[in-house]
User: What shape does this take?
Amino acid sequence: MARRSDRTAGMEAEKVARPLLPWLGRACRQAREERVRSEGALQQAAAARDEVTRAIADRLGCEPAELAELAKRAGLAGVDDGAEPIDPDEVEARLARLVAQREAMGPVNLRAETEAAEVEEQLGALRDERADLGAAIGRLRQAIARLNRQGRERIETAFKAIDGHFGALFKRLFGGGRAHLSLVGSDDPLEAGLEVMASPPGKRLQALSLLSGGEQALAALALLFAVFLTNPTPICVLDEVDAPLDDANVGRFCDLLEDIARGSATRFLVITHNPMTMPRMDRLFGVTMSERGVSQLVSVDLRAAGELHAAD
Assistant: This one.
């Protein structure tokens, strides 16, 4: 009874399914065709995805998953969750502008990083040199300031000494009067000029340039010997210094010269044609022409000759 029931049920199912077989066949064919199309579309989408991935890697140097973060850093709106979608046209326009700007920059310098390191090294060396130069300038300025300070002190000391000797020598050579030195033009001794003020007996105090020629020569001798007394030398050469002097002043000049020679170890060499000066010297050197065209050097020791004359 069971087998008969199963057979009967199968026959009835076959009777019911037989009219549906054509429709089921068409449905199966359609499903297979749809599957083939879906697989083809899937393959195309995968290829397109791979192409987009390669393009992103080539142009942006990142993976697709990193685009959102890159867009945020670039300031593009619409990349956050819940934000409005990005306008493709706006993105394309901005991309075109950026590409144009990049092309305007020229080709990429592959050695830029190396060159930047070299330039940075050179810049560091220049900074060190500038620091050394600044330190050297500071030391030099300190040295200049120290030298200027010492120079002012020495000038003031020498000026006071010379001014004192000048006043005394002027009074001795002129037989009276007064004279002094003054710094003019600046309060700084290193930049100031020197003015000689003199007042011979019977005249008012005035600048050296306003005196007569003989007075100027005698005042100049006083200043010369004032400097010499402040800083004496082993040898002093006087060339025709007595030429503009009259007889009285020549006598004062010779007296002063003898006093200075006795009071110091300096030897004076006086070049002169004055007949009053030559006898006051210790030794004379001259050129004579005993025969025409023949010159002869003559030396006379006046001191020894005087001693011999005194002995006789």
Q: What stands out?
A: The longest helix spans residues 112-174. The mean pLDDT is 82.
